[in-house]
Amino acid sequence: MILSQEKLLGLLQKYPPEKQHTLAVFQDIQQECGYLPKEHIIEAAQYLKTPLSQAYAMATFYRSFSLTPRGKYVIKVCDGTACHIKNIHEMRDTLARILDIDAGNTDKDGLFTLETVSCLGACSIAPVMQINDEYFGSLTVEKIYDILAKFYEVESYEKERSEV
Amino acid sequence: MQIVIDGKSCNAAPGQSLLEVARHNGIDIPSLCHHEGLPGRGCCRLCIVETEDANAKDANGTANAEDANGTANAKDANGTADAEDANGTADAEDTNGVADASPKRSLVISCVYPVHDSMTVYTKSEKVIRLRRTLLALLIEHAPDAEGALPAYCLEYGVTGYHGLLNIRKDEKCILCGLCVRACEELGNSAIQITRRGVDKIVAPPFDEPPQDCIGCAACARVCPTHAIDCLNDDERRTIWDKTFPLVKCAACGKPYATADELEWLKEKLLDTELNLAYCPKCRGRASRF
Question: Which of B38, B43, B160, B279 could link B177 by a cystine bridge, Cβ 3.0 to 4.6 Å?
């Protein structure tokens, strides 16, 4: 989703036009759009009086930024030590198989994005994943099927309602 | 000030880096990411050397002695016998202090290490050579196709090339030292940067497209120690970063000497300066003399 000119300007003007606010501006854009659209990076760099190359370098450095549109639901699979020991790779492979995508990609419906992150900081409930703001711990392969089924159910329900 | 490098006494000025001083005095220290026109950043770490810091030890020793003397003096006021005793102790401590601080060598990166008085430097010690070999092996592993200084150093240090230990493209030339980025920031228009992270890190223009900000000055290609940046010149055009620039010929000697974009950019930057941009730097100097 690309922001309108006024909306982007409103967002930019929350910050003084200085280089040091690049990260904060990008976080806001990521929050609003779900990713960093190219046009917005260019406009933000111009507003912040920062060379585009440096803005782009920052946008590509941080994992929390994406340069491509992401799904409605972003699945972050923990890749930390505790989860590793608890067989997280099995969960990740299951997810990849169900969604038919590799980690780092978005499925063809634009519904789910599968990502790995270094650690979700919830090792006590390892193996763990996060879908948008919700945590799912003590995962098993069966649980993964159940969780995804629920999301698909909600989606088809919403779709039906919107069609009615 | 005076410092000793490989047994040779060298003149140095405060603020200079060790590498600068060594090169000034004809002592060669290998380096890849360093350029004399740009501040050092210590990326390639090839200019590693060992230092022996006589100065720091001296200062410590002196400080201790003074301290002990001070105590001795204070006691002097109280009683002479005591003072003598204290002096005796102080002396003993002093010698102890010196004995403890046996010459200790430390490793430093000479391109970013500022010189200080009466330091002793070893640029070719056994340890340094061993470390440089490891560094070179890692660098060539990362950039198997590098040209220029890196393979030459590998030859010099007896490092046999690429083993395919890393998952790196075989035609990779870049060692990611960032010298081109620094050159572009200083001389050009900040058109390129080190982008992405970890194993995907590369030097690239924004969005991997021909960079809008590039003026085609080719400073990046010129400083690159491994010839990793493609820059094609013919009589009329220069192609760099997938962008083609028309070249401007000098009005006097007729050789192409800069891109049109570069001159445009210079004009903007040097608004108040009277500089005849029709001539190349060489002919410009000649023209101004007559």
Answer: B43
Residue A124 DSSP symbol: G
Question: What CATH number is given to the structural domain containing B40?
Answer: 3.10.20.740
Residue B258 covered by a domain: yes
Task: Please write the tens of the pLDDT for every residue from B214-262.
Answer: 999 999 999 999 999 999 998 899 999 999 999 999 888 888 889 999 9
Does B173 map to a domain?
no
Residues of chain B contacting A40 with CB distance shorter than 8 Å? none
Cross-chain Cβ contact A55/B197 below 8 Å:
no
The domain tally of chain B equals 2
Where is mean pLDDT largest: A88-102, B86-100, B258-272? A88-102
- A96-155 confidence digits (pLDDT tens): 999 999 988 899 888 999 999 889 999 999 999 999 889 999 999 999 999 999 999 998
Structural domains of chain A sorted by starting position, each given as residue range(s) with its CATH number in brackets: 5-61 (1.10.10), 73-163 (3.40.30.10)
- Residue B172, domain member (yes or no): no
As a whole number of angstroms, the distance between CA A150 and CA A158 comes to 12
pTM greater than 0.80 (yes/no): no
User: Which ranges in B208-257 belong to alpha helices (H)?
Assistant: 219-223
Query: Do A139 and A127 meet the contact criterion of CB atoms below 8 Å apart?
Result: yes
- B189 contacts A52? CB cut-off 8 A: no
The answer to whether position B219 is within a domain reads yes
Q: DSSP class of residue A3?
A: P
Cβ–Cβ under 8 Å, residues B49 and B28: no
Q: Who contacts B160 (Cβ-Cβ below 8 Å, separation ≥6)?
A: B154
For residue B123, what are the domain limits? 2-60+104-128
Which of B184, B193, B197 is the closest to A56 by Cβ? B193
* Nearest partner of A120 among A108, A107, A106, A131, judged by Cα: A131
Q: Is the ipTM of this complex over 0.85?
A: no
Which chain A positions have a beta carbon within 8 Å of B194's beta carbon? Answer: 57
Shortest alpha-carbon distance between residue B207 and chain A (Å): 7
Q: Are residues B112 and B10 in the same domain?
A: yes
A54 contact residues in B (CB cutoff 8 A): 190, 193
- Using only C-alpha atoms, chain B has a radius of gyration, in whole angstroms, of 27
Q: Closest residue of B to A57, CA-based?
A: B195
pLDDT digits (tens, 9 = 90+) for B31-42: 999 999 898 889
